[in-house]
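Hey L., structure's done. Input below.
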Amino acid sequence: MSSDPATTEPEGLGLGLGVSLPQADARAKTEGTFPYAADLWAEGLLWAAILRSPHPHARIVSIDTSAAAEMPGVRAVVTHADVPGAATYGRKVADRPVFASDLVRHHGEAIAAVAADHPDTARLAAAAIAVQYEVLDPVTDPEKAFAAPPLHPDGNLIRHIPLRFGDAEAAGEIVVEGLYRIGRQDTAPIGAEAGLAVPRPDGGVEIYTASTDPHTDRDLAAACFGLAPEQVKVVVTGVPGATGDREDPGFQIPLGLLALRTGCPVKLTATREESFLGHAHRHPTLLRYRHHADAEGRLVKVEAQILLDAGAYADSSSESLAAAVSFACGPYVVPHAFVEGWAMRTNNPPSGHVRGEGAMQVCAAYEAQMDKLAAKLGLDPAELRMRNVLATGDILPTGQTVTCPAPVAELLAAVRDFPLPSLPMDSPEEDWLLPGGPDGAGEPGAVRRGVGYAIGMVHMLGAEGTDEVSTATVRVQDGVATVICAAVDTGSGFSTLARQIVQETLGVDEVHVAPVDTDQPPAGPATHGRHTWVSGGAVERAAKMVRTQLLQPLAHKFGMSAELLQITDGKITSYDGVLSTTVAEAMDGKELWATAQCRPHPTEPLDESGQGDAFVGLAFCAIRAVVDVDVELGAIRVVEMAVAQDVGRILNPAQLTTRIEAGVTQGVGAALTENLRTSRGLVRRPDLTGYALPTALDAPDIRIVKLVEERDVVAPFGAKPASAIPVVTSPAAVASAVRAATGRPVNRLPIRPQAAVVTA
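Output:
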């Protein structure tokens, strides 16, 4: 992989923003001493296991726990009857039961939980629970869910968004249509879910887990426990990466119930199968599109129908649908748009937040439509896109004006003009370059190269009236600064960013970020790059308040304004050179601290016509994919991904490069291999052999050819989120390149081998 020189900082910059400061936990992670949840231990520890339904849809006739409870070493067995508080939970809609009571609505739904002296005993006891089911026909097709009997008391329809923009009678000279299907991508966390619950003397409980939204998890758990929120504490342990909601409350709540019931610490470490069955996945999506354009290739109207398969429960489906409908036309100027979006309950596994939710699915569809238009008009695909790209000041189909930087044309031009990779040689020494690898059955003569393009867009922070707020405290004493903020670093590098902010603002080299727990003020979920903006903004404001406390006495002493003093490399100097001292001397043993909040400008929900200023800001990316396809076998090798991205401002060059490369690789997985398959609602092979993640051998050469630093004036530091947008864009780019190589429509992700086969 290689990167643009812009991501390498000049020598001698020292500390602060714009420097590739290493992550504080990097050494511990590489040495294996980093404390993940699966590593936790406590005196008198018990082990938990959860019994899950083998059926996607069934009526529970009876549950007999007597055999499990009588097993030696078993300390507790809990079912729905043992939940003292709220029987259901949910981050947006409380529709998901802690344990199924009357109906099972998806394969793997929790029925009961066991605590025992040994993990094997716990699993054997869970298996000994006798559940009598009346198996029901599952509803697994979201299209059929409209007419199916209600699967839930709230009905099958979670949300419907009709977007109306412009003239319904408008039409173009050129019309193309398409039907597209996007598969079920799993977050596939590096470490499966794990946690430790410890009862407290006051009757409460502490839960140690890799939560990405600890305060919400605490509130949900407390409601189910029948406790006040202050009686439940969530302590965030090391997070082994997250590309969605890292810890589902469905793992945490049974754990806490068992600890409260037994009065002992209880630990749960999920198997990979339990992880696949227990947490939410990317929404499988069905999309129907009709694009209208004039003879010059300029878009006139887009019509679309978008159907999200939410699975059994609502989770974040409403938000995912809003993103899908709002971005259904992509980063293009569309005078008229008419989009219908639905999120439907089925008996499939639950869907929820996964990086770039909603936006990724529609990007694959609208970019396929742009390829079809280019082919029908006889235009170069990049040129067709260039004639329609969005810019600052244009209006989205939601009626919202794009006020943030939107350098879409610049991004597309950068990847279009970047030199193409050389063609592989046909000699045996270069066989590894063939699709399928060195042991593949392909022949060089059957390999065709394709070049494809895609442009994606995502929203930053929450949307539709979400109250985005974060609180941070900065404390400085004896030359050491401490940041207290409940923003969970999921691998996004927030902890490193917080250190850099304080270093730059206060000139203090040694900065520590305190561990996260719910005794701290809330900072919100680790999604949509929001901690860079909201929590980073709170840290910056708190650090500036401390800076004022530090500089004001000096300014008063020398009869000048504090604004005339600057801190550079640990030294405080005045504009005229009269004052020059070190930060340590100015501190003189004092302790300075400040607490601040950051709350971006408010948004509003989409109205009954899909109109409204629903988003705080937007980010954009253009990718050119180069693929080699064996058209006899359908094997695909992604040769290169050229990326140009709208980043606002580069805060840490090395972290930014890593985030982009990881996002592109995740997108390649969604394009080619990742699909959690189901058969009539049953998850097939829920493990890492049945679910194919891309490996290092599958990762293409990623060329970051341009990073546009056009700062968003309403964002702290002017930075934009970096990781979601390449995930959104890269699957569409790979599909576009496969279309170019084969001439096949490629209307499904991941791309099946048969879709890339060309018959004579």
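The longest helix spans residues 530-557. The CA atoms of residues 459 and 618 lie 4 Å apart.

-- N.
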